[in-house]
Each structure stands twice: as structure tokens, then as C-alpha cells.
Amino acid sequence: MKPTFLFYDYETFGTNLALDRPAQFAALRTDINFNPIGKPEIIYCCPPDDYLPQPEAVLITGITPQLTHSCGVNEAEFAKCIHKIFSVPNTCIIGYNNIRFDDEISRYLFYRNFYDPYSWGWENKNSRWDLLDVTRACCALRPDGIQWPKNNNGFPSFRLEHITKENHIFHDHAHDALSDVYATIALARLIKLKQPKLYNFFYTHRKKNQLKKLIKIPNMQILLYISGIFGNAKYNTTFITPLAWHPYNQNALIVYDLEKDVTPFLTLNSHKINSNLHTNDQSINRDAFHLPLKLIYINKCPIIAPANVLRVADAQRIKLDMPHYFSNFTKLKINPEILEKSILFYKKKQIFFYSENVDTQMYQSFFDNASRHIIHIIRHTAIEKLKTLNLTAYDHRIEKLLFRFRARNFAESLNASEKQDWLEYRRATFHPARIQAYIQKINMLYDMYQDNDAKKSLLKSLLNYTKEFISLLNTNHTHSHP
């Protein structure tokens, strides 16, 4: 099968990757030259009856829960449709900031609905890519031919709607999933047209096996690294030196950020470093940003390139003090104990913040083979027979996930006792204080947007939905939705 791109985007009811719910999915498949293949996919997802949308998200997207219930499907069907779209062989699944956001939404969606959260991104010659970091690289390294908007601070803005406007790309409804998909395709086409060598280099190096060829740890090398963690003021760019592979994660590369002076790091004690180093952030040690050590996950399409890709003129344009970085590299080479020290830090036990909520436990551990087998059985078992499965011998998460899966998507499959358990869970989750705070937020936003009829209409709809939601909590039976 010929390789294709699948450009996709979610609009969601909030920004919490594990707990908030998708509202809309849009995708369009193209060939490698961005010519559309088939028709676009648009699917709405109804929120379950144990969830209320974040009001701010509704204001941004314009999608109310009532809209999704009028034209959408439950989350089980939503996940099934998306997984089928993702599973076409030889597909590069791509978006704009998808690695950090949309792909995580997909993973949690599949986790809740008994699909493998990860395999869609690599099985059957599939891959992932993120145009946001490619766009950042283009701005820093090869800006010619593209207009680069500035934010209020005078630094480059990488908001999709800003870039499309500056380059006269049609983008009629920002934060509408399909509109964002079309805009992303147009931006990819523009980058490939104006900077084909840069585009092809990072397309080739989107996969970890190709990235590994750039990394030569024993030789103490300098590499260019572009990531949003460094900020637009620095054009998201730094130089790094790879030190070692993480002792427990083969996809994590320990690197030294050469912007940071080596001398203070040599004097730091292990307690000070470890108190900042170990966080529960799955993507990067953001809380440890002031430390020179970083983890780069090569399975997340990082933008890494040889140091000489940055031309002197471009280094001056983005105000990167190259002698400073190379001076730190020299210090690093004459202090080899930093390598041992770095590995030792990461060998210490990582601190994870355990949650009792099974919805948030995807990254707790991989499912073993037996559990993956029973998950496959669950997915192919008739809904009315799911309650008969004996799950006690498998991963403890599966039984809890299955009960929530049935309650959220197939309430009619619950017996009387299960319906009561679900109602009590919902009441405990949405206790009076939480409901009161939620309504207060809606009212506060309503006052804030007194002169905006469109936003007031959205907030009125959300308030009506909330009132119906509350009334169902006060009954002794369940409904499919408010």
C-alpha cells in the first residue's frame, strides 16, 4: 500500500489529557504530495453522564454537549471509528501539536475503550509526525519564503491561526477541527514548497531508527535541538550533547543543554538535583528546566539535527551565542564525571504520582500479554455478555475500566445493583460543592461576556445542560445523557 498522510485534529471539552473528553474529530487522508484521498471524516462524541465540559473550552470551540448529543456517537463508537481510520497501513498520522496533545487524547481514548493505546502509531509501517516542531525548525533554520508572525512580545508566534493569516492561507474557523486540518495541510504544503531540503530531512528523521543514526554518544558530539520548552524568544533552539540512554527507558536520551554552564552542575549535590529532576511529566522535565539535563524521547518525533545545519547568519538572526555553547561543550569534554553523574541520577527510583482514578492510570504500566488477550476478547464480546467475563486474574485496571465502559456507553447493560453503584459514584464525584463551583464559573463567564451574544448563548446552553445533569443525579435511575 502506498504511503499516505492522515492529517487530524480534535476539539475537546477541556485540556486535561486523561480526564477531559473529545468533542469533535476531523481527519483527511492525503498522498505524500498532500493531494486529498477520499472525503474528510468528521465525528462528534457525546460526553458520558459522569462528565461536565470545561466552560472555557465550550467558548473556544463553540461545541456544546447538546450539539454532540444531537449529531454524535457515544465514546465507544467514536473510538472504534477513529481506530479504524488510524489503522490503515503505511499511514503517517500528523497534526499540529498532536504529539503533545491530540495523540495523547487518542491514547487515553483507546485506553478507556479497550484498544491498544500505542500500536496505532507504529504497527503496519505506520508512523507519527508533528508539523508544529517542523514549523519551529523552519522559522529558526530556513525562514525564507514564509511570512513569520510576531506575538505581542515581538517574538515568533506559532499559533496556527496566526501563521495561516500571515501567509494568506484559508482558515475560516480556527478551533473547528476540519478547518484546522485543512490549514495544517496547506502549511505542510507551503513548507515543503519553500524549504524542501529541510522538510525532507525532518520527514526522514521522524522515526526513532533514523534519529538514532544521528546520535553518537561515545564521540561526545554537539547536536541542534528545537523544542517548545525553550521558548519563542530563543526561537525554541539550543545545542545539546547526548550523554547516555536512560537506564530504564530505551526511548529516552539523556542530554546536556549546552546553554547551561558546566561548573555549577559539577557542584550540585544529588538531593538538590533529584528534588527537581523527578516529576510525573511524561514528555519532558519541565520543572527541571533550570537544570542542564534533559530527556529527549526519540519516539516523540523530536527535532534533532547536526550542529552545522544552523548557519552562522541564522545563528546571528536568532541571537544564538555559538561561542558560548561551544565553550560549554569544551568544559563538558574535560569533565567526563558528568556522564557518570547523569546516569546515576536517572538510576535513582523515579517518583510517580499515583492516582486512584483508573481513567488516569494508562502510564502506570504496560498491559502484559494475558491482559492484552482479555482486552481483545472484551472488544469482541457482545455487550450483554460482558458482565459474565471473569477478570480477577488480569491487570487490576481492566475490571474497573470495563464497568465504566459499560456504564458510560451501554447503561442498559447494567443490572439494578450496578445502576445504583454508578449513580452513587456520580453523586460522589459531582458533590454539591463541586456543582456549585461549576455553576459559579459559568455565571462569572456570563458576566464577563455581557456584550457577546454568541458566548452568552453558549453559556446558557451549558447551564441548561448542567441543570438537567443535576436532576439526573437526584433520581434513582440513569439516562443515556442529559
UniProtKB/TrEMBL annotation:
Which cofactor names does the annotation list?
Mg(2+)
Q: Does the keyword Ribonucleoprotein apply?
A: no
Task: Give the first-level EC class, as a single word.
Answer: hydrolase
Q: Which reaction does it catalyse?
A: Exonucleolytic cleavage in the 3'- to 5'-direction to yield nucleoside 5'-phosphates
| Domain of life where this protein originates | Bacteria
Q: Which InterPro entries match?
A: Exodeoxyribonuclease_I, EXOI_SH3, EXOI_SH3_sf, Exonuc_1_C, Exonuc_1_SH3, Oligoribonuclease, Ribonucl_H, RNaseH-like_sf
Describe how the cofactor binds. Answer: Binds 2 Mg(2+) ions per monomer.
Return the EC number. 3.1.11.1
Key words, A-Z: DNA damage, DNA repair, DNA-binding, Exonuclease, Hydrolase, Magnesium, Metal-binding, Nuclease
Q: Where does the ExoI SH3-like domain start and stop, copy by copy? A: 196-350
What biological processes does GO assign it?
DNA repair
Report if keyword Ligase is assigned: no
The family database entries (Pfam families) matched by this protein are listed as:
ExoI_C, ExoI_SH3, RNase_T
Q: Which residues bind Mg(2+) 1?
A: D9
Record-annotated residues binding substrate?
E11, R159
- Domain ExoI C-terminal residue range list: 354-470
Q: Which GO terms describe its molecular function?
A: 3'-5'-RNA exonuclease activity; DNA binding; metal ion binding; single-stranded DNA 3'-5' DNA exonuclease activity
Matching SUPFAM superfamilies: Ribonuclease H-like
Q: Which residues bind Mg(2+) 2?
A: E11, D180
The entry describes its oligomerization and partners as: Monomer. Interacts with ssb (via C-terminus); this interaction stimulates the exonuclease activity by recruiting the enzyme to its substrate.
Sum up the protein's function in the record's words: Degrades single-stranded DNA (ssDNA) in a highly processive manner. Also functions as a DNA deoxyribophosphodiesterase that releases deoxyribose-phosphate moieties following the cleavage of DNA at an apurinic/apyrimidinic (AP) site by either an AP endonuclease or AP lyase.
PANTHER family the record matches: EXODEOXYRIBONUCLEASE I (PTHR11046:SF11), OLIGORIBONUCLEASE, MITOCHONDRIAL (PTHR11046)
Protein name, per record: Exodeoxyribonuclease I
- To which species is this protein native? Candidatus Erwinia haradaeae
